[in-house]
Amino acid sequence: MTELPELPELPELREQPEPPGVRTARRRYVTVCALLWLPPGLAMASMVLLFSERGMSLAAVAGLFAAHSLTVAALELPTGGLSDVLGRRPVLAMAGALNVVAFALVGLGTTAWVLTAGMVLMSAARALASGTAEAWYVDTVQAHSGPDAELRTGLARGGSATSAALAAGLLLGGALPWLLGAGPGLGARLSEATSGAVLPLSVPVLLGAALRVVFVCYVLTVLREPPRPPATLRSVLRGVPVTVLGGLRLGGRDALVRRVLLTAAAVGSALAAIELLMPGRTVALTGATGSGALAYAALSCAGFLCGGVGSHLAPLAARVAGSGERAVLVCLGACAGGVLLLGATASTTHLLATALAVVGFCLFHLGIGAASPNENDLLHRRVPSAQRATALSVQSLALQLVGALTGLVLGTLRPGPLPWLLTGAVLLSGALLWLRRADVRSTPVTTAT
To answer: How confident is the model at residue 243 (pLDDT cuts 50, 70, 90)?
Structure first.
């Protein structure tokens, strides 16, 4: 009997260990996300009340926030192009420096023009930071591991850090003025010592300014970028418009990028409905404005926490669903279900209906948190590094513009199930865009310039 020749041993199919640079980049990205979003969380709870305490009417406060939104929308694309041309680290540092000044003006300002200047600077900083940290992370990981590098885990952890920072900031920003007011005249003595410049409601905003200083120092000392050609004033002025146009063309030429942008628009519609309609529902539930505002703050904090959990579960969702696209479909379907549940319970404050509304609210944020890293993982595999921040800015702009338009439309409708059901239908349409599988290639699409 002839012996069969020995077959060579097959190598074990093991996961390749991550390069140390990838783990370091992920850790730094998570830290940047937390430092970037903790100050807005701190200011969120007290800013409207601070403006009112400074003697501004509700219409004037609405005007300040309108100026903020319009400035962000106007600067989204140019600042995204600036990040692609000039680099991620200098743009993030500029955003942090502008925010130091903006938070100081808002925290200390006593006149309308000073507060307006603070809000405009804050919105410029918001536009500069939009997508820049994420673009830095993707660039760094792909520089270490190539274009097929695994991105979803880092994006998910960054989303979890963002949500956790917003939730922690909201709680701390709401608690600090209350603690200063509850103490033995601490708030009054603080106001008296600063001639009224620093109120208890100013403290969370000023703490946010101090954290922005920490953010700038961290960005300048820790973040490192893959090499890029040196930028001159002429190259920046010529490169930004070209980069912006190239980013806009991506949405028209690439079906998957277009799908991501349409999904962002649908999510913007749902977020606008949440922000516009939920405060009124909490006031109707509690029967008083003050307790309603407190209930909404607690609900918002729960929403941020659910978003963080959803982001953490994004890689698991992709594995269970079989692909990133399927995960987006399932997660956005869950979001739409949450909004429709809010619509089904909108006409009553019965205990069971209220419990179901809270479930719908949390389900919406959980689904958004899980869908976003999977969407952006797909987006980054289709967009070249030279247009990455611009593509993220286009995505953000689609969300904001459709959200603003939705707010105007919903404002003309009577409160009740109808606004929720319409918004839920829009979000469900965005989810159904992912039914048909696209060609998910990791080679970025290049656009002629």
So the answer is: low
Closest CA to 28 of 140, 129, 130: 140
* Alpha carbon distance 295, 283 (integer Å): 8
Please state, in angstroms and rounded to a whole number, the distance separating the CA atoms of residues 209 and 378. Answer: 35
Q: What is the CATH architecture of 246-449?
A: Up-down Bundle (1.20)
Of the ranges 182-186, 237-241, 408-412, the best mean pLDDT one: 408-412
CATH superfamily of 19-225: MFS general substrate transporter like domains (1.20.1250.20)
Q: Give just the sign of the alpha carbon dihedral 177, 158, 227, 385.
A: negative
In 301-399, beta strands by DSSP E: none
**C-beta of residue 124 within 8 angstroms of C-beta of residue 98:** yes
What residues does each domain of the chain span?
19-225, 246-449
Residue written as tokens 């409601």?
Answer: 201
Closest CA to 276 of 369, 341, 342: 342
- Please give the structure tokens belonging to residue 314: 């994004």
Rounded to whole angstroms, how far apart are CA atoms 181 and 289? 20
DSSP state of 279: H
Global model pTM greater than 0.85: no
346 contacts: CB under 8 Å, gap ≥ 6: 277, 281, 357, 415, 416, 417, 420
